[in-house]
Prior knowledge:
- This protein is 16% helix and 30% strand.
- The chain is α+β, with helices and mostly antiparallel strands.
- It folds into two domains: 37-105 and 190-215, Alpha-Beta Plaits (2-Layer Sandwich), CATH 3.30.70; 110-188, Alpha-Beta Plaits, CATH 3.30.70.
- The strands form three sheets. Strands 5, 6, 7, 8, 11, 12, 13, 14 and 15 form a nine-stranded mixed sheet that branches. Strands 2-1-3-4 form a four-stranded antiparallel sheet, with no helix packed on it.
- The longest helix is centred in the last third of the chain and has 10 residues, at 206-215.
Amino acid sequence: xxxxxxxxxxxxxxxxxxxxxxxxxxxxxxxxxxxxxxxxxxxxxxxxxxxxxxxxxxxxxxxxxxxxxxxxxxxxxxxxxxxxxxxxxxxxxxxxxxxxxxxxxxxxxxxxxxxxxxxxxxxxxxxxxxxxxxxxxxxxxxxxxxxxxxxxxxxxxxxxxxxxxxxxxxxxxxxxxxxxxxxxxxxxxxxxxxxxxxxxxxxxxxxxxxxxxxxxxxxxxxxx
Length: 224
């Protein structure tokens, strides 16, 4: 909401916790009307490259909305963002409370990425990320970083972070002199992208939803 993407009766709302009456008020997200379903919906998309993480785009670029069943599930929206060229796991839901908690800095929900970076990164460089590194918006929290393999003039690494700053992983590697060439998110908390085809999606299992709710301090009740 703080990004100005939500409007109530045509007026942009940026205050977290703002209340609406679903029987009276009209709510839109990125210009698309949303409604409250009987049961929350939770999906996982394997985002392809060259797609913006919005439900509509004034510049006419392809959006993630074209890959998920928005007509079947009014009010569906992405949990956070992936960059235009970044691929991999992107969660969707109609549950605003869990989305807010998943993105809140205090929850520290881990997100794991695989990255192809320029240059042959040594352990000393990667250790800087493990210790936390200073970016233009402050010091990062320590990250888990593993060098998977090197080939020619590139290195394939896995990195796990618990923050959600804009383009954070790309900025972290640029800071140590190894710009990201390709970036793919493999997991968000307990949910993994494994088994989802490129540009494909699936419903989360009841166990995954329960694990997400547990990770953000909500009742760990299995949603059926």
